[in-house]
Amino acid sequence: MTIDLDKLNLHDYKPLREIVFESIREAILYGRLKPGERVMEIQLAEKLGVSRTPVREAIRKLELEGLLIMEPRKGAYVADVSLKDVVDVLEVRSSLEGLAASLAATRASEEEIELLKEKSMEFKECIEINDVQGMIAKDTEFHETIFKAAKNKKLTSIIESLREQVQRFRVTYFTEYNMTTYLAQEHHNVLEAIASRDPEKSKEYAQRHIVNIEKFIVSRVKDNFKNDGANKIYEE
Predict the structure, then answer these.
(1) pLDDT-flagged residues of the chain (< 70)
(2) Do residues 60 and 103 both lie within one domain?
(3) What pLDDT was estimated at residue 34?
(4) By CB distance 3.0 to 4.6 Å, which of 11, 17, 211, 235 could disulfide with 54?
(5) How far is 79 from 151, CA to CA, in rounded Å?
(6) Are residues 116 and 26 part of one domain?
(7) 86 and 187 co-located in one domain
(8) What's the Rg (C-alpha) of the chain?
(9) Looking at the domain assignment, is residue 3 inside a domain?
(10) Rounded to whole angstroms, what are the CA distances from 161 to 26, 59, 130, 157?
């Protein structure tokens, strides 16, 4: 097994156990550690350049979060993601994104609208060079700008609580060129509606954006992922 992790920057001011935990957690969320992949203390410790103790602590904490599963006499494995999990999260996110966009249409400052335009352009630039990690980062920043512009802390908190569950399958649709092209256009539609101060259109386009992602994920899972060991997302 080859683990896609880099040695840690131990000059960080955080406690070592937190740095190790965040590194392994990020590897799971961004798909560098795949669903169903075995996670071994000694290999992770060697890869990260640390002792086994903080790795063991991180594994226990990740098990509590549901990102790892411990099996007797077999060890730890990255938890699978079911199709039902994906659909459930996106159904909730669709409503929340629609609300955030509609609020942003009436509350966003001109600076926030300009920032939204900037993030939309940066996302398109990442598509042009097929930078998947860049697309994920810029997509996240685009949506976070809308949440901030909505100026509702409770709404932002609820949406952010779903972020990690969304993150695990983002790679799925950002590796498809046609899908990313549609996403760029949908970002533009949401942006234009917010810039036009049209809450109804903003809500409509934002919800449609998430619904289209849900439809794509469902079709992609059913057509291609059932036997793809590199991208396991199972139906319940």
Answers:
(1) 1-13, 172, 177, 220-236
(2) no
(3) 82
(4) 17
(5) 35
(6) no
(7) yes
(8) 19
(9) no
(10) 15, 21, 28, 6
Tell me: do 204 and 99 sit in the same domain: yes
The one-letter code for the residue type at 4 is D
Cα–Cα distance, 51 to 1 (Å, whole number): 19
What letters, b where the CB count within 10 A reaches 16 and e where it falls short, cover 183-196? bbebbbbbbebbbe
pLDDT value at residue 116: 97
* Token code pair at residue 120: 């939309």
Let me know whether 68 and 95 are in one domain.
no
Last residue of a domain, one of 30, 48, 79: 79
82 φ/ψ angles, rounded to the nearest 5 degrees: -85, 155
Do the Cβ atoms of 229 and 221 come closer than 8 Å?
A: no
- pLDDT for position 74: 83
Our CA dihedral for 73, 77, 83, 89, rounded to 10 degrees, sits at 120
Which has the closest alpha carbon to 206: 151, 155, 154, 147?
147
- The residue type of 74 is K
Q: 96 vs 64, 103, 105, 173, 204, CA distance in Å? A: 27, 11, 14, 20, 12
Which residues span the domain enclosing 112?
82-234
Report how far residue 209's alpha carbon sits from residue 186's, in angstroms, rounded to the nearest whole number. 6
43 and 118 both lie in a single domain: no
